[in-house]
């Protein structure tokens, strides 16, 4: 019923830029905070960026500050992750997450991920 679909991954050279998109369907998109995570094999999942229901509040991992930017377009049910000055360490899977809390109830929906490869 709920679908979270990432797109925009691919191959990019070090120092290059890439923009990921994530389209969410099956829920009221504007009611969900949105997050981007990344996880490489053998490593723990890392929160890259988050944005609240409105775009007035965003957060970034320290290593991404100044290079990445998260935004959302509620009219299009889409969240974006603009990635600039990509580094080799950015080669991994990036996952889109929609999250909502209603009292003690928690709702989390995940995409299957988008592969980003940073290589010369």
Structure description:
The protein is mainly beta and 120 residues long. 0% of the residues lie in helices and 55% in strands. It is built from no helices and eleven strands. The chain has strands at residues 3-7, 10-12, 18-25, 33-39, 46-51, 58-60, 68-73, 78-83, 92-102, 105-110, 114-118. It is globular and about 45 Å long. The mean pLDDT is 95.
Judged by helices, strands and strand pairing, the structural class is mainly beta
Overall shape: globular
User: Residue ranges: pLDDT <50 for 5 or more in a row?
Assistant: none
Helix content: under 10%
H-E string: EEEEEEEEEEE
Average per-residue pLDDT, rounded, comes to 95
Proportion in β-strands: over 45%
Give the beta-strand count.
Answer: 11
What does the largest sheet look like? 7 strands, mixed
Cα(first) to Cα(last) distance is 40 Å
Number of helices: 0
